């Protein structure tokens, strides 16, 4: 019986571990859909809900930034969007590797993502962008989405 419990535990750990994302997907809009499908595939026998961040925030905002507002930004701002998209996804991969079961805890997952956004924005130089770029970027961020990340 103990062997069976150990086997079940090891199997559960393997299911929880997010699969590594293919490098060609990092930095692209496809990343968030890929993460969404990976969760569904791994958790098909679990009742956990797919983190809403993947499609409702991650994919939606990356599409918005890369397809709608990119051309409104300066060259610096455009480069910032590309660098930040990649850096946020790399940061999310780090979070998933350090905390493999975090997707099943929406409050903790969102909290870490919220912190990651600030960390990455600073690291990629948001504060050094021209004021016009920062204004354009802020105009497109919905307060209600920030509340989602803050679990409010």
Question: Any overview of this molecule?
Answer:
- The structure is a single chain.
- By secondary structure, the chain is an all-alpha fold.
- It has one domain.
- Helix content is 68%, strand content 0%.
- The protein has seven helices and no strands.
- Helix 2 runs antiparallel to helix 3 and helix 4 packs antiparallel against helix 5.
- The longest helix has 24 residues.
- The radius of gyration is 17 Å and the shape is globular.
Compile the SSE list and pairings.
Elements: H1 2-16, H2 30-42, H3 53-69, H4 75-98, H5 106-123, H6 131-139, H7 143-149
Name the shape in a single word: globular
What is the domain tally? Answer: 1
Structural class determined from secondary elements: mainly alpha
Unreliable stretches covering 5 or more consecutive residues:
6-11
The mean pLDDT is 88
Strand content range = under 5%
Question: How large is the count of helical segments?
Answer: 7
Order of helices and strands: HHHHHHH
Question: Span from first to last CA?
Answer: 44 Å
Number of strands: 0
Main beta-sheet strand count, sense and barrel state: none
Helix content: 55-70%
Rg result: 17 Å
């Amino acid at each position: 019986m103990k062997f069976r419990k150990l086997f079940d535990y090891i199997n559960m750990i393997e299911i929880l571990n997010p699969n590594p994302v293919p490098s060609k997907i990092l930095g692209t809009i496809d990343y968030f859909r890929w993460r969404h499908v990976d969760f569904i595939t791994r958790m098909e026998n679990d009742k956990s809900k797919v983190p809403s961040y993947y499609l409702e925030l991650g994919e939606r905002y990356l599409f918005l930034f890369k397809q709608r507002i990119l051309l409104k930004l300066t060259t610096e701002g455009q480069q910032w969007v590309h660098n930040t998209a990649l850096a946020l996804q790399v940061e999310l991969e780090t979070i998933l590797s350090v905390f493999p079961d975090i997707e099943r805890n929406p409050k903790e997952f969102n909290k870490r993502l919220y912190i990651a956004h600030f960390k990455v924005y600073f690291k990629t130089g948001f504060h050094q962008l021209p004021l016009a770029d920062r204004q354009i970027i802020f105009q497109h961020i919905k307060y209600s989405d920030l509340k989602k990340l803050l679990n409010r």
